[in-house]
């Protein structure tokens, strides 16, 4: 259950929370999605982000990057998936890949070295995780809880994704390194100016020039990402029984995403360029204010205008399940206004649930796959209880404040270096385009982003334990245990995890730790 992020283009993504951590395939079903840690996962040129907030954490896309504007709706539940946090961000990753360069000195060279070092470090963690996935037996706490048949299927699925990940990351680092050291970015910027001139437009207009640059990046990323997306969706996901979409639905979603990007992207990019041009000493504040207002607008129209373009949302029918969810919401004074079921099964068998909405106008969305997979209504309600725990414990508020602060600080940092001629020259640029400045700035702060990512994952895992405990205190401990196990089984999530890998990557504790925490809280009460 992840938001559409069409390859290589400006795109708007919805975001939502989830009860379990699930590492998505390269192309995600075009639905509201959970997101990952607050900063790029690796130090490559695919990860220059300008973080713009949203009050909850949401999941990042697969490791097949793409330039887009990403929106995480205000008021969604706190994420239970690993990846980037609540944020509206300008992701210029593919634009960077499609064109990054560096000279033999300056900021670019150390950045490239750090990118390679991070690839080596993360590959080491991936190898550790791969070894854990190959273990032939379940962890002791899961013996008798997870069937051997489900374990073997989960193991096969996880290993397939792991092999695919190694190949994808190797191709990516080779491309990123080549782009960085062969000065592709300034070349691509100049070529986009030539394109603008050839069609009779004014290349001196930075907005037009930038849009041409991003359009080229979109085409490039489509070419690069499509083979990986197709293989992930129609080979790996299909092999293990998850993919439900046809090639025509896949193409239709991609076309819708492109059209959506063409409508939403240009005015947003033009506004950002204009603000930077006239911002003066208050630029950071103006950029933050614009992006915050844009986030509110997009979070308003996403559930009612954008999401229905890709999925069908129907009211949850009257019955026992609806009655129990409404009773739970009322008991917690959660202002539930609408309760929907989304047809996630048209694209994938993966399951999820999330909530969103402003203030007194909250909505809950259940995937039809979640309803099908849980054994009874109480298990589904326990999942909702966990999500409401994030709301009741103010996790969304804490996330919102943290991301707002990070966003403002990033804008502040950008204003300090945006006129640095030496910085631009170190990447091979004679002039100082605004969009290039954003890309370069994000590339130079990658080390800090990795540290923030690790710290935010620590906080996120703590929030998950608290939300589990909240549901338990409402009397849903047995049902939540059963639901967590069921979702782990049905999504074929990894049963064995390497502690170093999970500590670095996971925003959600592994299943073993969550079940153990629920049991420990039981033991403490008995004592």
TrEMBL record:
Residues 1-87 are annotated as: Disordered. GO terms for biological process: CAAX-box protein processing. This is CAAX prenyl protease 1 homolog. Its EC number is 3.4.24.84. It comes from the Eukaryota. Belongs to the peptidase M48A family. The active site is at residues 387, 468. Zn(2+) binds at residues 386, 390, 464. The chain crosses the membrane at residues 211-236, 257-276, 282-302, 396-414, 434-459. One of its GO terms (cellular component) is endoplasmic reticulum membrane. Its cofactor is Zn(2+). Pfam families: Peptidase_M48, Peptidase_M48_N. It is found in: Endoplasmic reticulum membrane. Binds 1 zinc ion per subunit. InterPro entries: CAXX_Prtase_1, Peptidase_M48, Peptidase_M48_N. Keywords: Endoplasmic reticulum, Hydrolase, Membrane, Metal-binding, Metalloprotease, Protease, Transmembrane, Transmembrane helix, Zinc.
């Amino acid at each position: 259950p992840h938001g559409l992020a069409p390859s290589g283009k400006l795109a708007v993504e919805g975001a939502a929370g989830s009860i379990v951590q699930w590492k998505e395939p390269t192309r995600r079903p075009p639905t509201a999605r959970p997101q990952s840690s607050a900063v790029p996962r690796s130090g490559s040129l695919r990860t220059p982000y300008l973080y713009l907030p949203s009050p909850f954490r949401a999941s990042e896309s697969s490791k097949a990057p793409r330039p887009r504007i990403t929106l995480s709706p205000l008021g969604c539940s706190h994420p239970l998936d690993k990846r980037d946090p609540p944020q509206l961000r300008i992701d210029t990753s593919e634009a960077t890949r499609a064109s990054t360069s560096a000279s033999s000195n300056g900021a670019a060279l150390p950045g490239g070295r750090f990118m390679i070092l991070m690839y080596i470090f993360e590959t080491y963690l991936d190898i550790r995780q791969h070894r854990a996935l190959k273990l032939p037996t379940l962890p002791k706490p899961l013996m008798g809880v997870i069937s051997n048949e489900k374990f073997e299927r989960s193991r096969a699925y996880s290993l397939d994704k792991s092999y695919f990940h190694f190949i994808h990351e190797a191709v990516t680092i080779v491309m990123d390194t080549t782009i960085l050291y062969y000065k592709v970015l300034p070349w691509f910027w100049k070529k986009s100016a030539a394109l603008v001139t050839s069609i009779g437009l004014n290349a001196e207009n930075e907005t037009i020039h930038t849009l041409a640059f991003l359009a080229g990046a979109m085409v490039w990323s489509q070419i690069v990402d499509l083979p990986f997306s197709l293989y992930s969706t129609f080979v790996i996901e299909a092999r293990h029984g998850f993919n439900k979409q046809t090639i025509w639905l896949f193409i239709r979603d991609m076309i819708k995403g492109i059209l959506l990007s063409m409508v939403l992207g240009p005015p947003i990019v033009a506004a950002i360029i204009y603000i930077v041009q006239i911002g003066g000493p208050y630029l950071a504040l103006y950029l933050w204010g614009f992006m915050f207002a844009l986030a509110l607008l997009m979070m308003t129209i996403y559930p009612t205008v954008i999401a229905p373009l890709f999925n069908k949302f129907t009211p949850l029918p009257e019955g026992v399940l609806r009655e129990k969810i409404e009773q739970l919401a009322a008991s917690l004074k959660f202002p539930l206004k609408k309760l929907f079921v989304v047809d996630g099964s048209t694209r994938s068998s993966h399951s999820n649930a999330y909530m969103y909405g402003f203030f007194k106008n909250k909505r809950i969305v259940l995937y039809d796959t979640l309803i099908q997979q849980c054994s009874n209504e109480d298990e589904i309600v326990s999942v909702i209880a966990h999500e409401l725990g994030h709301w009741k414990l103010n996790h969304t508020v804490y996330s919102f404040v943290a991301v707002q602060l990070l966003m403002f600080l990033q804008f502040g940092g950008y204003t300090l270096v945006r006129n640095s001629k030496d910085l631009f020259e170190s990447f091979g640029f004679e002039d100082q385009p605004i969009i290039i400045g954003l890309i370069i700035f994000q590339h130079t702060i990658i080390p800090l982003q990795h540290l923030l990512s690790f710290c935010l994952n620590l906080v996120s895992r703590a929030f998950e334990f608290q939300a589990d405990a909240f549901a338990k205190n409402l009397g849903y401990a047995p049902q939540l245990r059963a639901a967590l196990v069921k979702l782990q089984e049905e999504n074929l999530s990894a049963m064995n995890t390497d502690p170093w890998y999970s500590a670095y990557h996971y925003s959600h504790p592994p299943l073993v730790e969550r079940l153990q925490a629920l049991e420990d809280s039981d033991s403490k009460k008995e004592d």
